[in-house]
Structure formats: structure tokens, C-alpha cells
Specification:
By secondary structure, this protein is α/β, with parallel strands linked by helices. The chain has seven helices and ten strands. It has helices at residues 9-26, 41-54, 80-87, 109-122, 159-165, 184-188, 203-211, and strands at 2-6, 31-34, 62-65, 67-69, 99-100, 128-131, 153-156, 178-181, 192-197, 229-234. The chain has a seven-stranded parallel sheet, sandwiched between helices. It has a three-stranded antiparallel sheet with strand order 4-8-7. The longest helix is centred in the first third of the chain and has 18 residues, at 9-26. It is globular. The mean pLDDT is 97. Bound molecules: 2-amino-2-deoxy-6-O-phosphono-alpha-D-glucopyranose.
Length: 247
């Protein structure tokens, strides 16, 4: 695990984009795993800039998103479909046919989840998976106590996650109770992981992820077992770390 600490959010985001762009340039038909939340927004802005100004080409790239709320249609402004089109896909030349986001309105959820796993395998696996982290140590919507071997499935959201995300909805009751999420095992099969965290609200979760024991109570801590994981932090998110990590 490579822990990289940058002074601020913008520098961290640019470093993340540089790493993603390197993969896209080396392998134009690569498979990218995307995440939602406020943390990767700076990375997405930088990828858009690289597309516009440097011709970074996404036309052959396949994408898979980590998760989606159950019960929200793609056009709902809090759905992760909406988020991805609004904040990234509409601004780059990604081919709509190669974009995959879990379907929050799927009638046969189990069948959908099995199909999603098959699609990832058929695409050749994910080359680089971008991850954020919840203040409780979740990755995607794998909340504490999620099996570290889990696959794509439906999961209830933790009370604290619903509270954290309530700010985006008209009332707390409107926050969905469940999500479809890639499993921890699914995420671990990606060839590279790029976990981003910014701000002091994440410092405790990052300290437990990087320097704590591997535990289902901190699902992100499983990145310690990955062969090519980069944990990219701004200095506020790194504040709880005790070791010295070289630049
Ligand atoms: C959400 C998402 C996660 C994300 C996390 C942190 O609930 N399911 O994928 O990493 O919360 O979000 P933020 O980056 O806004 O802090």
C-alpha cells in the first residue's frame, strides 16, 4: 500500500487524475471503476480539463460505478446515475454503451447483481478502481460488518450514512434505506485501487484503514491486502496517521 499525502484537496485531485490518465493513455480500452460523493469531484474536474485541453480520449474506455441507491430512477437528481452524467460523463467523450451503473429500480435485484458481476468479468476486470471512504470506514456502500469477501448485492445503509447524506435530500425521510453496491471482494479484484480522502472528518477512518487491523468493522482496511493500492490523502485526512510516509 502506497500512502501519498498532499498539502491540499486540489493537489491531491490533480495527482489522482494524473494516475488515472496514465492508465487511459497506456491502455485506451481500459476499464475504469468510478465512485460518487464529494471527494472525487476535483479528480473529475481535472479529467474533464485533460480531455478538453490535452485530448485525453475516453472513447474506448469502459466504466463501472460502485453503487446506486435503491428506489431512485436514473433521472432523480440524487441518483448516482445523475451525479455521474452531471459531473463527468457528459463532459468527456465516453461511449454511453460502455457505461455501467447499478440500476436502482431493478425489479429482479439479485439477477441484476449477478449480471453486473458478469459484465465486469466480460470486460476483462477493472483496471483502476477509484474509492472514497465513509467516516465510518465504508467503501462504496459496504458498511461496517460487511463481509470482506462480498460480491455485488443489496445492502441496508447505516443510520450514520443516511444522516451524512440527508443534506442532499429535501427531508431525512427521503434518503433511501438501501443501495446496490459492489462487494468488498468485487472491489479487491480491481488491478489497481486508488482510495481518496480529504478533510478532517475522514482522519479517524483513514487512521483505522491504514494503521489499524484489517477488520470487517472498517471495510476500507481490506486495502492493506491489495497488491497495488494507493491511498491518496490531503493533509487534513492524514492527520491521524502516526508513521512517516515519504512524499
Ligand atoms: C457515499 C458513497 C461512497 C463515498 C462516501 C463518502 O455514501 N457510497 O462511495 O465514498 O459516501 O462520500 P464523500 O466523498 O462525499 O465524503
Amino acid at each position: 500500500m502506497l500512502v501519498l499525502i498532499r498539502d491540499d484537496y486540489e493537489t491531491m485531485s490533480r495527482e489522482a487524475a494524473r494516475r488515472v490518465a496514465t492508465v487511459v493513455r497506456r491502455k485506451p480500452n481500459c476499464v475504469l471503476g468510478f465512485a460518487t460523493g464529494s471527494t472525487p469531484l476535483g479528480l473529475y474536474r481535472e479529467l474533464i480539463r485533460m480531455h478538453r485541453e490535452e485530448g485525453l480520449d475516453f472513447s474506448k474506455v469502459t466504466t463501472f460505478n460502485l453503487d446506486e441507491y435503491v428506489g431512485l430512477p436514473p433521472e432523480h437528481d440524487q441518483s448516482y446515475h445523475y451525479f455521474m452524467w452531471e459531473n463527468l460523463f457528459s463532459h468527456i467523450n465516453v461511449d454511453r454503451r460502455f457505461v455501467h451503473i447499478p440500476h436502482g429500480m431493478a425489479e429482479d435485484v439479485e439477477g441484476f447483481c449477478a449480471w453486473y458481476e458478469r459484465r465486469i468479468a466480460e470486460a476483462g476486470g477493472i483496471d483502476v478502481q477509484i474509492l472514497g471512504i465513509g467516516a465510518n470506514g465504508h467503501i462504496a456502500f459496504n458498511e461496517p460488518s460487511s463481509s470482506l469477501g462480498s460480491r455485488t448485492r443489496i445492502k441496508p445503509l447505516a443510520g450514520t450514512t443516511r444522516e451524512a447524506n440527508a443534506r442532499f435530500f429535501a427531508s431525512p425521510d427521503e434518503v433511501p434505506t438501501h443501495a446496490i453496491t459492489m462487494g468488498v471482494g468485487t472491489i479487491m479484484e480491481a488491478r489497481k485501487l486508488l482510495l481518496l480522502a480529504s478533510g478532517d472528518a475522514k482522519a479517524d477512518a483513514i487512521a483505522r484503514t491504514v494503521e489499524g487491523p484489517i477488520s470487517a468493522m472498517v471495510p476500507a482496511s481490506i486495502v492493506q491486502l491489495h497488491r497495488d493500492a494507493v491511498v491518496l490523502l490531503d493533509s487534513a485526512a492524514a492527520a491521524g496517521l502516526t508513521l512517516h510516509y515519504p512524499e
